[in-house]
Amino acid sequence: MDTQDEIFKHLPIGRHLTVLSKHYVGVLTKKLEGLDIERHFSLLLILYYKPDCNQKCLAEILHIDKTSLVGIIDFLSEKGYVKREVNPKDRREYFIRLTAKARKNIPLIIEAVQSTNEVALSGFSENEIKSFYKILFGAYNNLEREPVNDYLIQFTKLPDKKNEK
What we know:
The protein is mainly alpha-helical and 165 residues long.
């Protein structure tokens, strides 16, 4: 059992997905560097496709705790991409809204996601891609029924290697 492929078969699936995610986020954030949103493009896309989302809704879709979500919203608010709006029906609740700056940049984010997906899935047939998503969602649904310890997986941009001396 000394080939890399043989070793990989014995590692947790989550390890492979984490490595894939790290590369995917790296490529996508490189394409979106000029937007100063770091890795928080998913939250902006959710708000674009689901504009009446409150903080609870965002936390559920992103599968993150409310404390982490508040930090992301604060970050994006400071950068001018989102704003909090009190729900007139329940003043304890806030809707998170895209600003004009965010709406202006959504097409760039959508294009970057689409092009990154195309690169990641190039060489696969349409049926293989459908199977990939079916397996991905199926595995998630299978594991969702299991007891779990919560972990925060947070990608942080490292300094560029070419700038190091």
